[in-house]
Design brief:
elongated; mainly alpha; 211 residues; single chain
Length: 211
């Protein structure tokens, strides 16, 4: 007799609104990755470099999310698990960059930092508003929302760092912001990994119940 239990629903037709939101977010993040990568190199800013890496990671996350919209809960959670680990890895990489910048000791160029920070903040606020409606979805949806939220917070911090660098001539505001962004990556990654593991476990239990 065929299994008829319904603990885990069959994969739903991909949410067209969520798909459209992901495509917009993907384009914005690729564009801002390029802008911040070259801007960070020009300004010698750890915070901008960290944010550029974050934009790149988010672009990859959005692309992967698009690929698994119609997958089962187990595979959506598996992809979200990988994304959560990437978010946490981002935090570790940024911490390493902060240590390197401290050793080199070159203060960043504040005006470039500030202008790119404002542009990035606008880009991430637009992305966060687009994805806000999906913040309470499964771990896959939650991960893309957290990425955008963290980015917007990080960009606001970059702007304050630029003001601090301009006022003091010190690299410390830049380094502090980079460390804050690293902590956001670590905590956000932890939240996504935790929810993804719960969903994977529930999916396996549902299959065992059906067996």
């Amino acid at each position: 007799m065929a299994c008829t239990c319904s603990h885990e629903a069959a994969p739903k037709k991909p949410n067209s609104q969520f798909r459209k939101a992901l495509w917009i977010a993907l384009f914005i993040n690729i564009l801002m990755f390029v802008v911040e990568m070259f801007g960070g190199m020009y300004a010698h800013s750890s915070a901008l470099w960290a944010d550029a890496l974050d934009f790149f990671g988010d672009a990859v996350n959005y692309g992967v999310s698009l690929a698994v919209l119609a997958a089962s809960l187990y595979w959506r959670a598996t992809v979200a698990l990988a994304k959560g680990l990437v978010m946490a890895l981002f935090g570790v990489v940024v911490l390493a960059k902060v240590i390197y910048a401290y050793i080199v000791g070159i203060p960043p160029e504040a005006m470039t930092m500030g202008m790119i920070g404002v542009l990035a903040l606008i880009a991430n606020l637009v992305t966060a508003l687009i994805l806000y409606a999906f913040r309470d979805g499964d771990s896959n949806m939650k991960s893309v929302w957290l990425c955008s939220r963290n980015d917007a917070i990080g960009n606001a911090a970059v702007i304050f760092a630029a003001i601090g660098v301009f006022g003091t001539g010190s690299l410390w505001p830049d380094l502090i912001v980079a460390m804050i962004m690293a902590s956001l990556g670590l905590t956000g990654g932890y939240q996504v990994v935790k929810k993804a593991l719960q969903e994977r476990k529930q999916s396996r239990l549902d299959k065992q119940t059906c067996a």
